[in-house]
Structure formats: structure tokens, C-alpha cells
Fold these 4 entries.
Entry 1:
Amino acid sequence: MLFRSINACTLTINNNANVIIPSGFNVTLNGALTVSSGSFTLNNNANLIQSSNVANSGNIIVKRETAALMRLDYAMWSSPVTNASQYLKTFSPSTLDARFYTYNPSTNVYASVVASSTNFAVGTGYLIRLPNDHPTTPTIWTGTFTGTPNNGNVNLVVANGTYNAIGNPYPSTINADTFITTNNITEALYFW
């Protein structure tokens, strides 16, 4: 089943329905998203927007695309879902083990992480090299996240006086101006 933009109080996926939200369309909910059976997929540049702080249940699939990149290039990723078993290596299995990083503000450098046992932490940005079998010509790579969609407030501790690598924890875009105003940010923000 292929849907376009949806506005609803809540949304429940059941009866093994396969709901796919195409690029450029939004699902706006006042309440929770529940996936009981079937699937709910947000393609690249599709959004799940929730106006209340409610808990979602069930897994969704969120697809996000890089710009056209070549083998040995890096992309910064942050997961829009929570999944206790989506390790960084599961997300990008063909990336070499030593090419997964997170930023350490106390040393001001990226530190490698053990991708096979490091799960995406909510709101944390991870620098991941493209898969080792990615083409050497500029090509888009699609990252796929599977888990329960994040919703509500996310509080992160950031170090003052240095850089921090944070990522969008939601399955929707964030308005940078609203983010800056809401969080009383006076420092510069740099977007990967």
C-alpha cells in the first residue's frame, strides 16, 4: 500500500499491511504510532512528525540517503529509531571494522568504536566510512534504520568550549532556527 501525506490522531498498522511513505511526504500524528503486524517504511526525505510526547510501539523502517559519495568517503549518521540490536556494524556491514567513529570533545578528535558491539545512542553522531564495496564514482548510499521511532524530548550533555557531534534523533527533519531558539544556542552550528 502506498500512502501520501497523512494527518491523524494516532496510527496503527495491523493485518500485515505494508505502508510505504514516499519521499517528500509526511505522516503527522497527535498521538502514537503502533506497528502491530506488517510494516511501516519512511523513504528518504519522508517524515514522521508527532506533536505530543507519547511512546510509540513496534518497529518501523527509515531509509536515509547520502549525497553522491565515493568509496573511502565518510558520512555522519544518527539513528531516528531505538533498537537494542542495531549495532553500527549491522547498519553498514561492508564498512571496515576500524572505520566507525564518534567524536570525543575532551580530546577534540574522533575516536574509533567497536562497531560490532556499539549500538546507536540517541542523539549521538557517528562518522562512518562508506562500505568497502561502494563504487569509486560518486554514488548515493542508502542507510536503513529499523526500530521503534524516537519521539519526545531528548536531552544530551554537551561539552562547553569545544565541538560536539550530535545528530537528529527523530524520523523527521528539524528546523534549525527553531532548534537554536528553543535551546538558547549562541554558538555556531556546523552541519555535515
Entry 2:
Amino acid sequence: LASSPTAAQLCESPSTLTLLPRLFQLEGTQDISFSSCDKYCKGTPWVTTLLQLVEEGLIARDDLLDWTLESLANDWIQFRSGWFSRLHDALQPMLDELNTRSDSYLALCHSRIGPTVSMALTALKILQKGNALTGDALLVALGVVLTGSHKGQINSAAKLLDQQLKYEPELKTDCVQA
């Protein structure tokens, strides 16, 4: 991870591509991580390389999304987690991709890393617009956010809950009891 290879360099040794999932399982260190490399090293950023590999069909987009969400679930320090949030944003998941992973986004609301929670709330907002959420699951996920200290996240969570109450008025009873 010391410097980002280009997609072409990774393809020179196809066995290297099989190591990618393992790299997403490693937090790295202050000196060697995806986030450090993309911020401090010269050359093509890892994000660019990975997106190119997806575009060329050398790694599956679904796999990259899953690896990214699994890495975010590890709650690594904000500097390293932020890289995975930015990769997620660069992938621009569509509604069906978000829907398939809705449980992951609900779970990420419990993260201790602010940008991870913000990313999850953004995904949940899109899912809600697509009518792909249930109130009970949303209520459990947002309970942690609503009792947090980040004003922007509290406001976003309250708006999500308010909108969900329009879809599921019977959820009001559960909100009062929670």
C-alpha cells in the first residue's frame, strides 16, 4: 500500500487482484494504508485505480461495495475510515445496490466514526425515497443517532424518522415507547 499501482500494473500479475479483498480487511498503519497512500504518495490514487478495475470488469462492483462496507463496519480511526467512505461515495451506488445492502447501512448508524454515520444516513435517505425501508429497523438504527452529540446527524435522523412516520403512522406508538 506504500504507493498505488495503476490498474495496468495490477493486471500484469493477475494473482495480485486476488489479494484485494484481504487488503480491505487490514486497517493499516499511520504510514501504510489506503488513506495515507492516497493523501501522501505520488501517482494514481487507489480510489482511481479501483474504479478503473471495476470499469474494466477486472473486479466486480458488488464486491468492491461489499468490501467497502465491511471495512467501514470495523470502525477504524476516522482518518482511515474516511477513505472507505470516500470510495463508497465515488462508487455512487444506485438504489438497487443500496437496497441489497440496507442492513449494512442501518448497522453503520451505530458507528463511532461521524463521517461513517453521515454516509449511512445519506444512503438511508435514498432508500427511504425508494420506499425500501421498514420503520422498525429504521427506528432501531436511528435511536443511537438521535441520542448522539452531532447536531447535523440528529437533524438528519429526525427528518428520516418524521418522513417514515408519514409512510407508517402506526410507528408513532413505537417512537413514544423508545
Entry 3:
Amino acid sequence: YYFVRATNAAGASGFSESDYGYKAVIGPLIYVNNKVGEVDVSSGSLVSVAVEMMNLTQYLGIPVDWWCVAYARNWGSWYYLDSAFEWVNFSGVFAECHPAYQGGLMNTPVVELMEGYILPVGVYDVWFGVEYPMDGLLNINTQYIMYNHAVIIVE
């Protein structure tokens, strides 16, 4: 997020309203209702989550595991997106997760991961990442991981 203010010989203005942006993201970028970062949603509103992979020129073709994991903070519930694009509840132990996809890194257009859900009031974290080596095991401690995180706040 960023704020802008103007400065000239007469002084400085106040800060603008906040806005969001990103600079040359390499790897995944998560969109929640077409916004990035922390997104507020009104109770009863539809929620869509999508991801885009971009600027991977030097990494194209490297075999990786593709992951999507979500956490519902209010309930302490963990979910992962399986290869059939179904959300599967799990205990939070990453060894229980399975990748959504396994294969070479590629730039992708925006892909819907969750479309038109109505979530209960609460706070949700969503991570999307790719991890090397392609072994079907989610290891968040490896140095070979690219990921992005979004927060959904339903009020």
C-alpha cells in the first residue's frame, strides 16, 4: 500500500487516501475480488480468489509443486486446494497437503481458485506458492519457494 502527498515552496499537503500497487512481481500474485493484499468484504458478499504467475523468464520449465493453502483464523481451520481444485480440510500439518499441480514453472494468466463464495464473518489467510524440488511435499523452510499471501476480512 502507498500514500501520496504533494510538496512545493508553500509546504506539503496531507496524505492521499491509500492505494495498492506492486512493482515487477516475480512469481505469484493473489487477487481477492480483483484487489491485492488485505481486502475487506461485507458480510454476505461474494468472494473470489484468483492467482497469476508472472515474470518467470529465467525460471521457465523448472519442475515445481504448485500449492494453495488457506487458514480460517476464527475457527483455526486449515484447507488446501487439491489437484481437482477442491478445498480439502486438514490439521495444519503441511505433510498432509497435496499439491494442486506438479509441473514446470510457467507464466499463467489469471486463474480462479475460488469463485463466488460467501464466507462467514471472520479473517481468512490465503497463500499461493510454488516450491522446488517437485516432490509432493510442502516445505515452507526451503530457500526455493515463491509465494504470495492475501488476507480476507469479512465484516
Entry 4:
Amino acid sequence: TNGIVTQTTNNIEVSTVAPGLLTLNGEGLAAAEVVQVSGGGTQTVQQVYTTNSSNAIVANPIAIGTGGASTYLVLFGTGIGPGGTALTSVTINGVATTVVYAGSAGADTGLDQVNVLLPAKLVGSGNVNVQLTVEGLNANPVQVTIQ
């Protein structure tokens, strides 16, 4: 009620999370980064997709574990943070991965990130589907390319 109109029945869903992943083209290409961490701790960051001189989106294939490095996929989205790392899972091409962080991406309010250790068994997979699940709720699936 607002003093003039009274609404007698209205159904709403209240949830602690509502996971959604950001895409580059609205059709599933992941807005994500890859972080390679060398054995010595040096980090190299690469975008998963970029644009070429014609502004077309092109894949930067992910090279997993080259030279003994650990490879992490960093996904960006929203509605993820409250679930936390313990209640978040990611499968890539049906392969379960290790989620090492799920929460706020930092200074940008409402922007969350999920850091996933990529297993060596995905090497050579090509274009793959990534499925994020938080507290049992699936986010929109996204795609990356694995070398």
C-alpha cells in the first residue's frame, strides 16, 4: 500500500545470488582474462578476446600451463559475490575446475569475478563452454578458446 493504492497479491523471488557473466558480444563470448603464473611467481595477463583493426572480435587462444606455469581464467560478472568461493563451481566442457576465488572484483560496485585454475586435461579443447553455478543457480554459459 502507498496510501492511495493497495496491492493485495504479488509474487517475488528473493535470492542471495543471481549469477550472470559478462559477454563481449551479447552472444556468449566471455569478457574474461587469463593470468599465467610462472613457477617464480611472475604474472602475465592476457585478454581472452580482443578486437582486430576492423573492430571484429577475435580469440586469443588460452595456452594452459606452458613452461610449468599455472593458468587461471578470470571471469567477470555480477550477482556472484554473496555466494563466495565455497558455494561456487565452474565446469568447462563438462570438466570440473578448481574455483580459487569468487567475490567482489574490487573498486567497481556490483562487479564480481571468479578465478578458476584451468586443468591440463583441457589442452587442445578449442572452443569450449564455461558454466558457472553459484548456490545451485546457473549463470548464462559463456565461451572461450583453449589452445
